[in-house]
Amino acid sequence: MHKTSLLIILYILFAAPANLLAEVQKGEMVYKRACGTCHGIGVAGAPKIGDKASWTVINEKGLDILLHSVVNGLNGMPPKGLCMNCSEEEIKQAIEYILVKSGLNLE
């Protein structure tokens, strides 16, 4: 096996999952700061974190569309869920956190 191939395999096995874990951990902080108030208990019809059935349907739209909906607001959710100082990357990480905590596999 070539050294380059071995390095790629090692990255896939160890570094990529670690990077995803780091993003999910950042997403948890954003969720707790900005999203949890509504998505924790389902305020105004917000899908609750942990509700796999609801989040599966939402996730079928794709992460790009979901991110667009959060950034621009959707139904009762205001733009950025009122986290006006959050970057799109931080919002994406919060979405990924919610999906993982709702039992969905992002890989």
Explain this structure to me?
The structure is a single chain. The protein is an all-alpha fold. The protein has a single domain (3-101), classed as Cytochrome c-like domain (Cytochrome Bc1 Complex, Chain D, domain 2). It has helices spanning 3-39, 52-59, 63-72, 88-101. Helix 1 packs across helix 4. It starts with a helix and ends in a 6-residue tail after the last helix. The mean pLDDT is 85.
Topology (elements, then pairings):
Layout lengths: L2 H37 L12 H8 L3 H10 L15 H14 L6
What would the average pLDDT be, to the nearest integer? 85
What is the alpha-carbon Rg in Å?
16 Å
Structural class: mainly alpha
**The first-level CATH class name:** Mainly Alpha
Number of strands: 0
The main pleated sheet reads as: none
Categorize the overall geometry.
globular
How much of the polypeptide forms β-strand, as a percent range?
under 5%
Any descriptors?
mainly alpha, Cytochrome Bc1 Complex, Chain D, domain 2, 107 residues, 64% helix
Briefly, what is this?
The chain is mainly alpha-helical.
